[in-house]
Specification:
The chain is mainly α and 205 residues long. Helices cover 75% and strands 2% of the residues. It has one domain. Helix 3 (57-79) runs antiparallel to helix 6, helix 3 (57-79) packs across helix 7 (176-204) and helix 5 (114-132) packs parallel to helix 7. Belongs to the INSIG family. This is Insulin-induced gene protein. It is found in: Endoplasmic reticulum membrane.
Amino acid sequence: MYAKMSNRIISTVRRSVVLYLIGVCLALILHLLQIQRNVTLFPVEVIGSLMKSDWWVPPVCGAAAVVVGLLYPCIDTWLGKFPCYRVEWSNVMRCLAVFVGINHASAKIDFANNLQFSLTLAAMSIGLWWLFDRSRTGFGLALIVSFLATVVTQLLVYKGFYSYTEPDFLYVRSWIPCVFFSGGVTMGNIGRQLAVYEMEKEHKL
């Protein structure tokens, strides 16, 4: 019993480390895209101070990736429901590529107006869920992640940690929830696949 519990703890730690590293890497890539497009702006006094600079963005995103990636398989197990679309590493990698593509589009493509842009990204985000998840649990959790992350982002902008150029949804861009939604689906799929991998590894022992 103790050995089994110890194995679960080690498995959880391993998955957490992988999820954290993936979250940090994605945050660096996506943050760089937004800065290049001048979507996000950091005040001079914030950039000049190490304690208030944007160094905290990747670690926070890494921690969020751990929470989301561990939460998805836990909720699946608790509800006894698993995605009808078989999660495999090839699908996870494609999901990750589409997620980066959505963020690349949000930073590079010029649309006639923000409403058209937001609706396009919303359709792409739902399409991401349909292609790589298709579960009600995944959709609901992605909505919750999107809502909470948007609220936190608005609070950070309100406090002056950074700002968005031409905000049209309170303090942020209206397409931000779509990006967080697709991010929730992506990290959820990665977390699910890591959980499946660990379970298969345990059964082989």
